[in-house]
Amino acid sequence: MGHVPSFTRLHQVAAPEAGGGVRLGGMSTVISRKWEHAVVTGGAGFVGSHLCAALLDAGAAVTCVDDLSTGRPENIAPLLERPGFTLVRANVAQELPVDRPTDLVLHFASPASPADYLRLPLHTLETGSLGTRNALKLAQDAEARFVLASTSEVYGDPQQNPQDERYWGHVNPVGPRSVYDEAKRFGEALTTAHAETRGTDTCIVRLFNTYGPRMRGHDGRAVPTFVRQALAGEPLTVTGDGLQTRSLCYVDDTVAGVLAAAAHGMRGPVNIGNPGEITMLGLARLVIALAGSRSEVRYIERPVDDPAVRCPDITLARDKLGWEPHVTAEEGLRRTIDWFRAETRR
Prior knowledge:
Number of strands: 15
Shape: globular
Structural class: alpha/beta
Distance between the termini: 24 Å
Oligomer: single chain
Number of helices: 10
């Protein structure tokens, strides 16, 4: 294997012990509240399926609600045989058919990759608006804790780097990315209004560039695209000059942050991400090295409104939740590459 490029590393601090621990990818996730039954919308998706597994590991019953428009049955296939897991196939923008006592609602339903939300623009907007309304009503009626999965995309193409939760963003409301950006921004506004006018117990988490096993190779995001291309010996397609940055957070760390925010009781918004910033060109070279690939880099046109920088300020998560990422990019990418390699052999 060739030289692995270096980049910013995190100083890792263990979260304080506050309750029973759940093992996630070699790290200890502390969940200080005992959930009896959780509803995860979008639970067959990439992040949602990992959340479902973590909650089951913590002893909760889990109802996964997904219309499988972008989620995949194989993501939850191992969970179907586990006690306490239920799959409900439904479009949350139309209905949310859960009729059992619930104490946690995690609203993670939404097309999240460019390939998906550009293909499903109206569905994306409806999931972020009507779907959020329905999920909030379920939480309100059940007197449950509600967590909205928002995104770093609410910051748009930021004029501030890193981005903290007080930054209002720099977003094009009618550009090609707007269906996703504005759906999430509206979801945040609706969630805030629900908390203030109806007393719903809500939390907003803003997720930054989560990656890991169960991503789809053709979903348009950088990590799965680069990994797929490197393993196939194809050129890695870097957009623009490749100097735009992202901050990659391994999925186990993201799940730990989401559950910490759910257990804490904070309203947020709170950034959940990895402040280790890397350029897209640096990422491509890193993937080539870790995959032991002979692929080269090929430059292609940069998408409209593609953010120049993306890096979370996670001071709030560190101070309030005792949370920060533990998986380095090298380790997370190795795990991801290994998973994709195994998938191609099936």
